[in-house]
């Protein structure tokens, strides 16, 4: 099912299909949501959110409006109504006290995830179309310690790997404030975890249809390793 459909009926069903796929893999306590990006979604931005996003590029504003609309809805389900999800100068979203969360979008779909900071130190999400990753990008993303397998991701394993590394970065950056490159993150898709050169380990869950979405999370009780396991 295409998530870039333009008919209203198809949009609703595409969103429902991805919502169900996310619900099936999300860790307990993590709230997730999705939305197909639509014309006019830039109007979903609250005034404070718009001021924090330093761009006039309409495509980006639409995606930012869609993803923050999802996030505010997820926060509302937790009793935090109409909280403006601002963009920090360093790029990450600013969440209310006691909440850990993450935002992501590709050209067509926006996704968001939130969880209580009591349960998780870090949470990251990323979304990609379920198509092969171009070869030139594969060579930038994959490192010898990555283990991608192919039991559930035949043909799109490298795209899942790319998505996983993006999600891991979002989960760990707010904790360490260290910029990581792809070669600083080692992913094991078969065993569903990743390690970083900063000593973090993130657990992974993902779906591959109708979209690739990866959630990376660090439980609150997890100690930080002295170095990454490879």
Automatic annotation (TrEMBL):
The record lists the catalysed reaction(s) as: apo-[aryl-carrier protein] + CoA = holo-[aryl-carrier protein] + adenosine 3',5'-bisphosphate + H(+); apo-[peptidyl-carrier protein] + CoA = holo-[peptidyl-carrier protein] + adenosine 3',5'-bisphosphate + H(+)
Annotated Gene Ontology cellular components are:
enterobactin synthetase complex; plasma membrane
The superkingdom listed in its UniProt entry is Bacteria
Task: Indicate the segments forming the 4'-phosphopantetheinyl transferase domain, all copies.
Answer: 123-192
Q: Name one GO biological process term.
A: enterobactin biosynthetic process
Q: Where does Mg(2+) bind?
A: 126, 128
**Quick one: which residues bind CoA?**
60, 68, 126, 166, 170, 180
Q: Does the keyword Disulfide bond apply?
A: no
Which intervals hold domain 4'-phosphopantetheinyl transferase N-terminal?
48-114
**Which keywords describe this protein according to UniProt?**
Enterobactin biosynthesis, Magnesium, Metal-binding, Transferase
Q: In which pathway does it act?
A: Siderophore biosynthesis; enterobactin biosynthesis
Molecular function in Gene Ontology = holo-[acyl-carrier-protein] synthase activity; magnesium ion binding
Query: Which cofactors does the annotated protein need, by name?
Result: Mg(2+)
Could you confirm whether the keyword ATP-binding appears in this record?
A: no
Tell me the protein family, please: Belongs to the P-Pant transferase superfamily. EntD family.
> What job does this protein perform?
Involved in the biosynthesis of the siderophore enterobactin (enterochelin), which is a macrocyclic trimeric lactone of N-(2,3-dihydroxybenzoyl)-serine. The serine trilactone serves as a scaffolding for the three catechol functionalities that provide hexadentate coordination for the tightly ligated iron(2+) atoms.
Describe, as the record does, how this protein assembles with itself and its partners.
EntB, EntD, EntE, and EntF form a multienzyme complex called enterobactin synthase.
Q: What is this protein called?
A: Enterobactin synthase component D
């Amino acid at each position: 099912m295409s998530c870039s459909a333009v008919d209203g009926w198809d949009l609703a069903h595409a969103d429902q299909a991805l919502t169900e796929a996310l619900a099936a893999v999300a860790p307990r306590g993590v709230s997730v949501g999705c939305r197909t990006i639509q014309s006019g979604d830039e109007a979903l931005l609250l005034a404070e959110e718009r001021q924090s996003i330093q761009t006039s590029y309409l495509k980006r504003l639409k995606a930012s409006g869609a993803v923050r609309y999802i996030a505010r809805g997820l926060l509302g389900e937790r009793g935090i109504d109409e909280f403006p999800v601002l963009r920090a100068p360093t790029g990450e979203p600013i969440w209310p006290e006691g909440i850990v969360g993450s935002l992501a979008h590709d050209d067509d779909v926006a996704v968001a995830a939130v969880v209580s900071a009591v349960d998780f130190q870090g949470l990251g999400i990323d979304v990609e179309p379920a198509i092969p990753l171009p070869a030139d990008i594969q060579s930038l993303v994959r490192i010898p310690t990555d283990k991608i397998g192919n039991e559930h991701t035949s043909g799109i394993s490298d795209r899942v790997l790319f998505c996983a590394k993006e999600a891991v970065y979002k989960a760990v950056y707010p904790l360490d404030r260290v910029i990581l490159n792809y070669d600083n993150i080692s992913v094991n898709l078969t065993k569903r975890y990743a390690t970083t050169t900063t000593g973090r380990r993130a657990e992974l869950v993902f779906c591959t249809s109708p979209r690739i979405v990866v959630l990376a999370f660090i439980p609150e009780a997890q100690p930080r390793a002295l170095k990454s396991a490879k």
